[in-house]
């Protein structure tokens, strides 16, 4: 069965004054119709650049796609002519941007911006398009939609603007939505409302959803599968429940440990994390919020610059589990099996240089860590 979207070994470079920066170093992931893939990682990990490359809106120059495939229903978008790709963009796949105020035209009413989608892609008259725009605004629960269609973006709150962006993306009922940090700068109540709306629309239209975020709390109840990115590469993929329960990469565990927990009054304080410091000869960084009022855990150091990527595993300078092999050999994307009786490391056929594999473990799990088994059972 053909996947709705499949990204294979995608590579994106930016030419800068200081040299060539590889922002995306061989990313592979996919999503099926009616399913949600969450792409997690710190700022600068390459999540948004990957999405822009998939949508065909990458600023070029300075950015350029240097390799890989982006298959949408089996057709490679990267080999299509620009006109073919424009017909797909908006009608079959759409994107929700993280800054709705910047993404919307400030001098055109929101109703007119929504109506334009129907006029251009469906050939509707202006009156019919305006009526459909109001229906769409009402569908995403904007109060008094008929009156507010004549308002400008700055007259809406942040949450309402994000609903407008969702409405614009859903206007032509696409098969795939890419949501890039859709809850940025929103309070937690509005975040929950926006995520509930996206989940409802995904179910109603049986569309695929790629949700890009750095907030693990946002995706816990929405995603089916999670892909964790670090330094322009996928370092772990797993079904959402498996990843939250037993991460198989130290970076994923660090992200989980950085989430405050109300029952601990501080950081996550997952089992065994403080012990990691002894594994690689590093000092432990203390108890991560195990007691109320404790210090919130943070992954030490900062993500590497794409201009000066470290040798071996890109995460090893920050990893409490790092050993000599991590400093000299970049791990491929290993298949992960979680049956305690049959655990085995299986190379997915990845290129060791790229750290990217094409396979998925027997239960849908992969990890780009030499010591994934130890991490899984920590």
UniProtKB/TrEMBL annotation:
Which residue intervals are annotated with compositional bias (Basic and acidic residues) in the record? 272-286
A single Gene Ontology biological process assigned to it is: peptide transport
Q: Which residues form a coiled coil?
A: none
Instruction: Give the Gene Ontology MF terms in alphabetical order.
Output: ATP binding; ATP hydrolysis activity
Assigned keywords, A-Z: ATP-binding, Cell membrane, Membrane, Nucleotide-binding, Transport
- Cellular-component GO terms for this entry: plasma membrane
The region called Disordered is annotated at 255-290
Q: Which InterPro entries match?
A: AAA+_ATPase, ABC_Ni/Peptide_Import, ABC_transporter-like_ATP-bd, ABC_transporter-like_CS, Oligopep_ABC_C, P-loop_NTPase
- Domain ABC transporter span(s) in chain numbering: 7-256
Which Pfam families does the UniProt entry name for this protein? Answer: ABC_tran, oligo_HPY
Cellular localisation: Cell membrane
Where does it mainly reside?
Answer: membrane
Q: What is this protein called?
A: ABC transporter ATP-binding protein
Q: How does it sit in the membrane?
A: Peripheral membrane protein
Domain of life (superkingdom): Bacteria
Q: Which family does it belong to?
A: Belongs to the ABC transporter superfamily.
């Amino acid at each position: 069965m053909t996947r709705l979207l499949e990204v294979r070994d995608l590579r994106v470079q930016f030419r800068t004054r200081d040299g060539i920066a590889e922002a995306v170093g061989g990313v592979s992931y996919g999503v099926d119709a009616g399913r949600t893939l969450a792409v997690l990682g710190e700022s600068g990990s390459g999540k948004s650049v990957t999405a822009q490359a998939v949508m065909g809106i990458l600023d070029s120059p300075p950015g350029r796609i240097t390799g890989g495939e982006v298959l949408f229903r089996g057709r490679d978008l990267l080999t299509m002519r620009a006109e073919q790709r424009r017909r797909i963009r908006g009608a079959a796949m759409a994107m929700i941007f993280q800054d709705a105020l910047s993404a919307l035209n400030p001098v055109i009413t929101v109703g007119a911006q929504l109506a334009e989608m129907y006029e251009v892609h469906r050939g509707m008259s202006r009156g019919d398009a305006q009526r459909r725009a109001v229906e769409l605004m009402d569908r995403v629960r904007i109060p008094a939609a008929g009156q507010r269609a004549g308002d400008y973006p700055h007259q809406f709150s942040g949450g309402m603007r994000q609903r407008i962006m969702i409405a614009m993306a859903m206007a032509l009922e696409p098969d795939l939505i890419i949501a890039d940090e859709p809850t940025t700068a929103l309070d937690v109540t509005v975040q929950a409302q926006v995520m509930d709306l996206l989940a409802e629309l995904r179910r109603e239209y049986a569309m695929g959803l790629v949700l890009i975020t750095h907030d693990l709390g946002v995706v816990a109840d929405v995603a089916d599968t999670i892909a964790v990115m670090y330094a322009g590469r996928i370092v772990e993929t797993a079904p959402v429940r498996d990843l939250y329960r037993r991460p198989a990469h130290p970076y994923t565990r660090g992200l989980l440990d950085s989430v405050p927990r109300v029952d601990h009054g501080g950081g996550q304080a997952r089992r065994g994390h403080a012990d990691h410091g002894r594994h690689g000869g590093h000092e432990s960084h203390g108890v991560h919020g195990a007691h109320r009022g404790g210090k919130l855990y943070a992954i030490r150091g900062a993500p590497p610059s794409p201009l000066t990527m470290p040798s071996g595993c890109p995460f090893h300078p920050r990893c409490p589990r790092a050993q000599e092999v991590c400093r000299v050999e970049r791990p491929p994307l290993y298949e992960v099996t979680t049956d305690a009786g049959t655990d085995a490391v299986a190379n997915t056929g990845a290129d060791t240089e790229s750290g990217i594999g094409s396979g998925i473990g027997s239960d849908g799990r992969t990890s780009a860590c030499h010591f994934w088994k130890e991490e899984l059972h920590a």
